[in-house]
TrEMBL record, chains A, B:
It catalyses: L-aspartate + ATP = 4-phospho-L-aspartate + ADP. ATP binds at residues 5-8, 218-219, 224. Coiled coil: none annotated. This is Aspartokinase. Transmembrane segments: none annotated. CDD domains: AAK_AKiii-YclM-BS, ACT_AKiii-YclM-BS_1, ACT_AKiii-YclM-BS_2. Residues 388-448 form the ACT domain. Belongs to the aspartokinase family. It is an enzyme of class 2 (transferase). Catalyzes the phosphorylation of the beta-carboxyl group of aspartic acid with ATP to yield 4-phospho-L-aspartate, which is involved in the branched biosynthetic pathway leading to the biosynthesis of amino acids threonine, isoleucine and methionine.
Length: 448, 448
């Protein structure tokens, strides 16, 4: 059994939905389909979910919501009509939305429930379309499927009992279409996942049914080994491990939300990233282990927008607790840090630029000076991180040498090297100005 | 005016003291001399300070101390007789020791005061010897010189007012001989510095008199650029900066106690390491800044005996405060850490092996598991650190490439790289087994 998930661009309009149907029908193993809400039809279009959020805003604010509701229904109607489906479907979808609006629940729940209507509508439409092609298919509501989550609107986490109930989907016949993005609490209330949560649904369903494969259909042929904006026509990654995917996602690869895959990872379900617009392309496999790739660089991730907070103090390393106290100051301001290299008399903390600014920055600098009595504290902005990712990198002799050679040939100074914690990646800090150049040289070193 | 300090081996016996006198007289600028206690005359000899500690032990324990006292006095007497000085000197030294023994002060003070008799005796002897050669010279007790310290026996810190009073030494004529290792509290009580404190005295005196040069005479020609046990006949360092010296001292260079130099550093007094047994050799200069050396590797320090504490947890980087809490657990057990590289889902802490063992280790592992709910925690021992030191290293393109190439050629895997906090060093972690080999290849890369 395969579980197939289609992202927003794949269900944006009738044309795309026809491709989806073709893909599903192309492989009899594709039995469970998870769908997102209709995405943008063009680059200046609006996503369905955003239209629903606008609608929710009007409803919650007790304003006239007719225009907002029409915008939503027009989108659905357009798809339904192009697919030559019954107007009843449009009415069903509208009734559901109206029911939520009239329910007079809390603002939080109303927003959550309305947001979910995009995915729900997609699922109803796809199911009806498959039926119209004489295919045995059914829409399955998440509650029925067994997607039970914690009751945290917008932040729901799937509960373990969910997996057992999902397995029972094997007992049903035909193709099952499940809307992504939301589940139900134990008490039966609708709750949504964090944004991009259709990936989470797909992952959970794949884990629950112990799928042979979880196919994640999006709008790129594969995961690339480097940002295509920096290196044109880069090599495609044929396969990588869960760990490698997670590390790459961290610093710039945004094919999908890496945390969404965790249920699949835990259940060791293989994942394949494919392109709805080019379904014959092999795509990228994401697997638990990949012996063939051990010791090889799988991908190069890069991102700007980091800064270094640097402190120095004579005999810092004699003060047990100094590092901890510095981190405490950051934690008090709810700041998350990337890495904190320390030396004998100094320590740096690498942060994302948005973590430190304005008054917060002043407060932190003042606290560091007063509480830690440092000799010097300063902030250097405009740093970029470049990360080499690959299983077994930290046991591979010579890799660091190859990597640093690329930096030298690019004539870019390495401001920071972080190797040693992760078994799967090696992180470099450079001035943002040199980032693209260095990435190009690294690509040449490792992929050509 | 130059301040000259002689270490234990330089004042161990009459032969050495004659060399000391020759050195001092060789340069009329050498006006203030700081001396240690007599060191070992041969490799299985006992240092004077250890004899005094034994004596103190007997006295404090109310045991018969005659043999211990004789051992001390025999050493002094031997030197005094060989230098053909008056027996009165022996009596003076013995009276001073007896005075301390009979004073019935606290055990702490008694130990402290007896320990100081080695340096004090050396200073008296050298001063008398110079006088016997018709040189105007005087023994100057630290209280008289103005070495005022905090009242922490064995841990005394010099106070700022000390420097002002020391400057008045300029008003005195002749050569001034000051015993190292101890000072006096504001209340007039004798207090010793931490072990090796003659270096501290020399440094303080050099800062106080604003010396043109502080010459630190020991038993090696210079500071070597690498451990001579790993690379034979290594190049000598002609000059390095305070920062570089401090970093090198951290990981294995034990020419002297680097913290002792801090008063000289703060006052920007140039320091020169020289050899009593080869005083004409130029030695090694330690200075505030060294433009000529910028961007060059000055030395390679290396040390075994480290371990890595490794923890991993899915989504660790989303838990603000995780790193701080891990460090807190270590701090609660009074553990000092060297470096803590963190990744996305994992974090390592590099410790010296002696910090973690037995029950302490069990407690920490248990706390980490319970309080941080990690997926995995383990300890890897037998790690060695190799450190490249040099001002401007972190701004020098290509250095990391050169360094990592040496590792590759040595066929040693780099387990950890820490670059980015210190401007002056770059730290590598390797399995202890490969350390010497890698150091040899690094030496070849950077010094040949």
């Amino acid at each position: 059994m395969k579980v197939v998930k289609f992202g927003g661009s794949s269900v944006a309009n009738a044309t795309q939905l026809r491709k989806v149907a073709d893909i599903v029908l192309d492989d009899p193993e594709r039995k469970v389909v998870v769908v997102s809400a209709p995405g943008k039809r063009s680059s200046d279009d609006v996503k369905m979910t955003d239209l629903l959020i606008e609608l929710a805003g009007k409803v919650i604010g007790n304003e006239d919501y007719d225009t907002a509701l029409s915008a939503v229904m027009d989108r659905f109607r357009e798809i339904i009509q192009e697919l030559e489906l019954s107007e009843d479907l449009t009415e069903t979808i509208q009734k559901n939305i109206q029911y939520i609006i009239s329910s007079h629940e809390s603002a939080e729940w109303t927003l959550d429930a309305l947001k979910s209507c995009g995915e729900d509508g997609s699922a109803q439409i796809l199911s009806a379309y498959l039926q119209s092609k004489d295919v045995k298919a059914a829409y399955v509501n998440p509650k029925e499927a067994g997607i039970i989550v914690s009751d945290e609107p917008g932040q729901a986490q799937v509960l373990d009992e969910s997996l057992e109930q999902l397995y029972k989907l094997h007992e049903r016949e035909g193709i099952l279409v499940v809307p992504g993005f939301f589940g139900y609490s134990k008490e039966g209330r609708l709750v949504t996942f964090p944004r991009g949560g259709s990936d989470i649904t797909g992952s959970i369903v794949a884990a629950g049914v112990k799928a042979d494969l979880y196919e994640n259909f999006t709008d790129v042929d594969s995961v690339y080994c480097v940002n295509p904006n920096i290196v044109s026509n880069p090599k495609q990654i044929t396969s990588l491990t869960y760990k490698e995917m997670r590390e790459l996602s961290y610093a710039g690869f945004s094919v999908f939300h890496d945390e969404a895959l965790i249920p699949a990872f835990k259940a060791k379900i293989p994942v394949c990233i494919k392109n709805t617009n080019n379904p014959q392309a092999p795509g990228t496999m994401i697997v638990a282990e990949n012996e063939a790739g051990y010791g090889r660089v799988t991908g190069i991730a890069s991102d700007k927008g980091f800064l270094t907070l640097y402190v120095s103090k004579y005999l810092m390393n004699r003060e047990i607790g100094f590092g901890r106290r510095l981190l405490q100051i950051l934690e008090d301001e709810n700041i998350s840090f990337e890495h904190a290299p320390s030396g004998i008399d100094d320590m740096s903390v690498i942060l994302r630029e948005e973590e430190l600014y304005g008054e917060k920055e002043e407060r932190i600098l003042a606290r560091i000076q007063e509480e830690l009595d440092v000799d010097m504290v300063n902030i250097e902005r405009n740093m970029a991180m470049v990360m080499l990712v690959g299983e077994g990198m930290n046991s591979t002799i010579g890799l660091a040498s190859q990597a640093t050679r690329a930096f030298r040939e690019a004539e870019v100074n390495i401001e920071m090297i972080n190797q040693g914690s992760s078994e799967v990646s090696m992180m470099f800090g450079v001035d943002a100005e040199g980032m693209e150049r260095v990435v190009q040289y690294l690509y040449r070193e490792f992929f050509e």
